[in-house]
Amino acid sequence: MFKNFQEIIDHLKGFGKTPIVVVGEDKDAVEAVYDAHKIGIGVGVFVGSKEKFEKIFKEYEDKGFIKDVIDSKDDEEKCKLAVETVKNEGILLKGSVKTATLLKAVLNKEWGLRTERIITSVAAFESNYEGREKIVLISDGGVLIRPDIDTIVKEIDNAVFVANKLGNPMPKVALLCAVEVVNPDMPETVNAAMLRKMWERGQIKGCIVDGPLALDNALSMYAKEKKGIVSDVAGDADILITPDIVSGNILGKSVEYIGGKPLAVTVVGAAKPIMIPSRADRAESKLRSIALTMLISR
What we know:
The chain is an alpha/beta fold. The protein is 40% helix and 19% strand. The longest helix is centred in the middle third of the chain and has 17 residues, at 149-165.
């Protein structure tokens, strides 16, 4: 099982350089592709204003990371061209374009990347909390606004798929809430209890599900024992499922901006691998997103 991103990168070096289709002129995305090329796992196809990209490229003496530049100045056209390009090869990385614009292209019924699966965002970060080194997943802070029970089941399936690719055959899934008891005035706790019961009855497979769980007792054995919680998931969760996009987005950004841990973000469920990191994410986070997305695409 991969315990950190360096292990993932070392593993990917044996597969050659995957084309990374960057849509929108973004300095950090270009730097991430440059770094991916330097370590031997990627090469860039850049979709956007050629003039703006050329200004960014001037910072690099070695231009070997540039496979192609597809000139376009309109964001919707950029996204369509990027989608058409990635159909042939590689993975898709959002640069300066807005997430909504790119997802509109990805979900286009005529030429997009739709499949029968639901599309969800899965974030990942390195954790060594209480001495347990591993990669923890968060879903969904980028796509699902307020998922219902059926949608959350599919969301869990997508997150489990990523965990499996990380080498975890039976991930522990924590359904996050503010408290670890069912409170009828807090609908997310009721939903969590229903999902736990669905797992007990075999309606959710390939993982261990429990909830409601608060964040502290989902990740901390100390908190679990202190609160007297009996659970196979509490204290050692591999996947954190948040009740809505607000809590998921805040949790992910808190990991990065308060916890100081670079966050990788990938999108699961499309016909081709996609990354939709925040436009404010630094190159290090985008490189980790590239590595994670390459891994799950194999």
